[in-house]
Amino acid sequence: VCSSDLGVVALAQRWWDDNASQRRFLWLHLFDPHAPYSPPPAFALRYPESPYLGEVAATDSHLSLLLEGLLEQEPAATNDQRPLVVFTSDHGESLGEHGEFSHGLFAYEATLRVPLVVWGAGVEPGLDSRAARHIDLLPTIAQAVGIDPPGELPGRSLLEPSATRFGGKFYITIRAEDDHGYQSVSADGLNWAPKQRWVWDNGDPINMSTTQQHWLTHSDGLFLVYTRKDKSNTGVIRWRAPLYVAQVDPRTRRPIRATERVVLPLTGDGVKHPHSLAFIGHFNTPQAPKSVVVG
User: Three-state DSSP class for 215?
Assistant: First the structure.
């Protein structure tokens, strides 16, 4: 038993290093920042007017001892070999808002909205503005490491980059690390059909990575914005360019190949000049107005 968060981090680091020869799952829980606020002396001096911020800074310093090693280890490793890191909190602090100085009395944003950072294999850099819940963490971790979670498991994987509603139904894309993308449909947004692999309208498979699979809704139809493998991008990591758009048949949930268009072309060859590639961040599902012609 450790009496300080710094001691807990040290034990976690030791365990991680001792088990380097096998697959590892490490769950690390730190008590601070938490009332009553009493940061270590160095951080209390740095934040004399806010002991809460002193504990936040101290926790950040403690975690850096573990995380800096994880994030910088094996610089030559591919993205798929990096550890998956999930950082979150179980609650926030009101700090005087609504007359509450800690937490546990009211259910306002100050205590309900907490940080959530996911870093590692299969996670593209970006800010996702969709609502997320702690029950989504287990499906997210399972998908990232290639494990199929039980069907009755609550929550959804946060690696699913896009969900939309069209024609009275809900559609969602599902990223995977098996060179394929998947999608599903639901009548109520809660009960989903078995996932279906992306194939063209004639049944030919589409090779996709975990980079881009986003819905685009329009009064004229349902569209998908995506990246895929083709003859031009075999040297591009995760086939991140070019960026395509195609109309999707909502009945079969298959892209119509004749409608495919290049939205953002490939720049360079991805090998000799990899930094010339256009890196595309994630975005929410847009609703294109009638005046916009898609494709």
Answer: strand
Q: Provide the sign of the torsion angle of the four alpha carbons 212, 206, 137, 59, taken in this order.
A: negative
Mean pLDDT check: name the lowest of 102-116, 171-185, 275-289.
275-289
CA nearest neighbour of 124 among 223, 243, 213, 230 = 213
Longest dimension (CA), the chain: 68
The conformational region for residue 179 under phi > 0 = left, psi -120 to 50 = alpha, else beta, is left
Please identify which residue in the block is written with the tokens 């005087």. 96
**Beta strand spans in 113-234 (E):** 116-119, 163-166, 169-174, 182-186, 196-197, 213-218, 221-226
With b for 16 or more beta-carbon neighbours within 10 A and e for fewer, the 4-16 pattern comes to: ebbebbeebbeeb
Is-contact 62 68, C-beta < 8 A?
no
17 token code pair: 């290093």
pTM above 0.85, yes or no: no
For residue 168, the 8-state DSSP code is T
Q: With the C-alpha atoms ordered 60, 61, 66, 67, is the resulting torsion angle positive or negative? A: positive
Alpha helices (runs of H) in the chain, residue ranges in sequence order: 5-18, 41-46, 51-72, 109-112, 137-144
pLDDT 10s digits, 80-139 = 567 889 999 988 888 778 887 777 777 888 888 888 998 876 676 666 666 788 888 888
Neighbours of 223 (CB within 10 A): 25
Q: How far apart are CA 159 and CA 164, in angstroms?
A: 15
Strand pairing report for 287-288 and 213-218? parallel
CA-wise closest residue to 173 among 232, 255, 237: 255
